[in-house]
Amino acid sequence: MxxxxxxxxQSMRRWSLARIIPIAEIELKSFWHLKSQLLSxxxxxxxxxxxxxxxxxxxxxxxxxxxxxxxxxxxxxxxMQAFGGFQRAIFRATIDRRWGLLALKRLLGAGGLGYVLAxxxxxxxxxxxxxxxxxxxxxxLGVRMDARRYITAILLTCIFLAFWTSLATILTxxxxxxxxxxxxxxxxILPITFSAPVFYALEDVPRYLRIVAFANPLSYQVMAVRRxxxxxxPGWWLMVAIxxxxxxxIVAVWSVSRSELLxxxx
Amino acid sequence: MTATxxxxxxxxxxxxxxxxxxALRHLTxxxxxxxxIALLGANGAGKSTFIHLLSGTITPSEGGVExxxxxxxxxxxxxxxxxxxxxxxxxxxxxxxxxxxxxxxxSHALTERAIEIVRLSDKARQQTDTISGGQLQRVQxxxxxxxxxxxxxxxxxxxxxxxxxxxxVLADLRRRADDGALVLVSSHDLGLLxxxxxxxxxxxxxxxxxxxxxxxFMARFAAExxxxxxxxxxxxxxxxxxRARLDRAGIRIIAxxxxxxxxxxxxxxxxxxxxxxxxxxxxxxxxVLDLRRxxxxxxxxxxxxxxxxxxx
Lengths: 266, 312
Hints:
The complex is a heterodimer of chains A (about 270) and B (about 300).
Chain A: H1 8-11, H2 20-33, H3 35-61, H4 66-98, H5 101-107, H6 112-140, H7 147-172, H8 178-195, H9 207-214, H10 217-229, H11 235-258
Chain B: E1 6-16, E2 21-32, E3 35-40, H1 47-55, E4 62-65, E5 74-77, H2 89-99, H3 104-117, H4 133-145, E6 151-155, H5 163-178, E7 182-186, H6 190-196, E8 199-204, E9 207-213, H7 214-221, E10 224-231, H8 240-248, E11 252-253, E12 265-270, H9 275-282, E13 288-294, H10 298-311
Parallel strand pairs in B: 3-7, 3-8, 5-6, 6-7
Antiparallel strand pairs in B: 1-2, 1-4, 8-9, 10-12, 10-13, 11-12
Helix pairs in contact in B: 2-3, 2-4, 3-4, 7-10
């Protein structure tokens, strides 16, 4: 007979991994629920971005040398796909809080760390699927890469993905309605995406954009992944990105564990 | 089932800072395992807060529940809809078993059983956004029941349920209580609760008003039964001798509930009075043709309490 603590708030284990597998199973099922969109989300959208937008930009700014420009863009583009996990995590975590499912999961013994890590599973699977599609297309478009450095870069994107899913978990503790969620997403997604140096080099942009980029966590992640991909020392870009990820995860676990699960009497 | 005999609640209170009000205060009582407790109270009395506090989904502002052995298990069903809309009916129930730590095989067996109890087997693979509100409620009940918990906390579980489903759910809860579980059910369906509960816990304005056996509660707040007597003599022509005997026995003549079908005489008698004591008070002046005895239930007792509270 499995055991469940009672009452939960007296014995909730913040750093416990308990129930990570069942929560990951739930997330995978919810992912599969949208199976009709998977081809579009995982293959078509990233392929269109890379094949049309990036290649088009490359033909303009790269003196027609699309492959060189795509080689520059590719690591940042992978990180941009990882950032896509932020939106999904916000979406799912809001449902968990809005519909009392986080309360249920905690009540049945889910640990704080287990919850935060379980919410990472689907975004990682999704990212890896996108990465396969992007890699095939990039090679077809003439991008050449060092396999070992490329795999390391992909692993880094997976680690940085934890920053975005953790941030989503933290932010959803501030969201009480779907309207708030939508406003937050619309205010965050585009500025974060386009102020990070995915499609351009940070040193070539205007000063104001550089300032904005330095305030954007995605910039550090893009730069770290790009440097690893290029075989350069990632330096403080990597350090900042790793520290931010660890801090975000700690705060997310704290946020899940300490929050009162139901706001007021029904 | 647990060897623990009671859930000890001590000075439990909850203050909502947003409204700066105490939703619940100074609750001290022992809830015994092996009982099905009807949690009664008006809207806003603090019933849901009480259930949330016991479940641990909100934290108390004062007091608490004395710790129980760690192997005590809990099932909770919120009044609010708590459904994962991206999972089907079966998966929503299965979630409860898997999260509770059961293996996949055990979880599937438990899920099938729970879905059967709430009579949703034919909807098991349907998406949750395609079923009715009552069926959603049954999904939540099944999820609370699926792990066969030691403590069941159900907040308005029968809202939206059809009569058959309500009966099936309460019958199952009764069986679980008889097997040793502690079952706490809040509901406004007092007729249903009267049939299945054995204790009543009444909260008013955030304070504990009564916690006693169902029968004691009904005897306290609905102390009289109604006796409708069909005779050949209308009440207006009742002989003074009969009136005097009834008066001496502490029996009141009352107005009938249904004036369209007026019996000749309507009496309020102390609960449980044998008919053998009543009839000699009427005879020989009256010819008693028929008798109908109505025993007030939980609903009447609760209403009597409410009137009593309102006039204080």
